[in-house]
Amino acid sequence: xxxxxxxxxxxxxxxxxxxxxxxxxxxxxxxxxxxxxxxxxxxxxxxxxxxxxxxxxxxxxxxxxxxxxxxxxxxxxxxxxxxxxxxxxxxx
Length: 92
Known about the structure:
Elements: H1 11-25, E1 30-31, E2 37-41, H2 46-55, E3 61-62, E4 70-74, H3 78-91
Antiparallel strand pairs: 1-2, 2-4, 3-4
Helix pairs in contact: 1-3
């Protein structure tokens, strides 16, 4: 059985599905992985996006030095993923 954030069964798998669904709905290109994170392409604004999200306590990592224009988003639980996209939408 898969374990999610803080050990809840299947929570990471459910949140991962929510993440991909919201990325698609918001027309963001993403690079799924088999780890607990997704790379979301935000273009030339990756540093700005990272800093503005940090200001509202949503932490992402700017990975544009590895893949241009991408931020790394850890998949926690569905609520955290939904908050990430809500905050991203506000600054987009």
